[in-house]
Amino acid sequence: MTQFDNSSLEVVSLDDMDWFEFQHFTAHLFEKLGFGKADEIQKGSDCGRDVILHSPSGNVIIIECKHHPKSTIGRPTVQKLHSAILTAHSKKGYLVTTGKFSPAAISYAKALGSTIDLVDLRVLADMANRAGIKLLKKGENTTVYHVLPPSKEIVNKQVIKTVVGSALSHPNKAEELTRTTINEITFIPAYLIDYSIHENFCTSVGTVHSVHREYERILVDGQYGTLIKPKLTQYVEKSCMKELWHPSQDDVIYSSGKFKIGLSNAKKRGINFVRGLHTQTVGYYGANNVHYSKKCIPKKSSVFVRSITQVYIPLLNVYSKIISIEHRLELVGNKSRVEVTKGNVEKCELCGELLTKKRLLCNSCGKVVHGPSFLGHSYICEICKKTICKECAFWTRKYIFFKKKLCADCGEQLKIRGKKIKKFELRTSGTKPYYI
Known about the structure:
By secondary structure, the protein is α+β, with helices and mostly antiparallel strands. The protein has three domains: 13-137, Trna Endonuclease, Chain: A, domain 1 (3-Layer(aba) Sandwich); 146-316, no CATH class; 359-435, Herpes Virus-1. It has eight helices and 29 strands. The protein has helices at residues 19-32, 75-87, 103-111, 121-130, 152-163, 174-177, 263-277, 408-416, and strands at 2-3, 10-13, 37-38, 51-54, 60-66, 72-73, 92-97, 100-101, 116-119, 133-136, 144-147, 178-203, 206-221, 241-243, 253-256, 280-285, 291-296, 303-322, 325-333, 338-342, 359-361, 368-370, 378-380, 387-389, 394-398, 402-406, 422-423, 426-429, 432-435.
């Protein structure tokens, strides 16, 4: 079993890149290897310098990129790069290709000494490996990683946190009353897409909007090609992923979806999703002082996909029981943390309203309800201090006009001693219950 580490996160398919994306990739690779910081890459005539790097020592490095897998790069291209180096007053250049170099090109580069280094596909793959980037060969399948599912302990803790929260509970703590079972774990196939996006939106009055984001991520469903909730990317962490993973809990049902869309298709869909996420309508005033609006939709070329990785994300079907109250929940997460994504939680189990303030866990039935207040959804037994919801509460006369709230056990004891004990009566108003 291989531990998922820094050296195996980024996965890049050169076959799915156009020439402009290859320039972005080359700049990213050289930056990651510590050669320097690249200037923003622009489309158009480059005069033999696709990428300009500024090294830590202050020197300028010129890089020419040729994404021609089936072509041979000749001497004229090396000469063009040499001219660009001289023009930029630089002392170093790199000619990077996904193809190969002709003998004349290699001979000319050697004659220039250390001025120009030639990087063919073999050297490029070695550099990528040192940078922690896996280059996919044509027809090669990418490694599929599993996000490790959380343990029963972590799941139980999160269920209690979500369902019960900081509710008043006496004499037992929520942990003592809750029993949680993981029924099934379904692994959702997804493509993790790492990207950057840069674009300025201009009109006759100048720049009206800009988007410049680095190291952003999205998840594309590998089965249906839809966008997965962006917040779920936080659970796809290096330290919580493994390849060739096998289930460890025998009492849990495991299932996995299948990748039905390919890497190229996922990339295209991902770029369109990114463009949609960063589309924004802005307002501005023209030179005539008239207010205009402009819908700023990023171009495809403004999105650079750094990496596409196939992952399986665990979706947990969980059954939880607090005394007699059952909860069926869906959770997603990794081995370190998890969150509830579906389930009728954080609502009062008497009135159905959101629990925004104090809440109480009934130690008789297990309901989580609004805390003691004028709403009268819960009480604390005035004899033993047990927390109870109104459905489980009894009362006896206190002085003349007041009611003494009791749990069932204390009520039974008083009844034995001859006290008159009554249960709160349920009435309905519309769809909401209330008590008298």
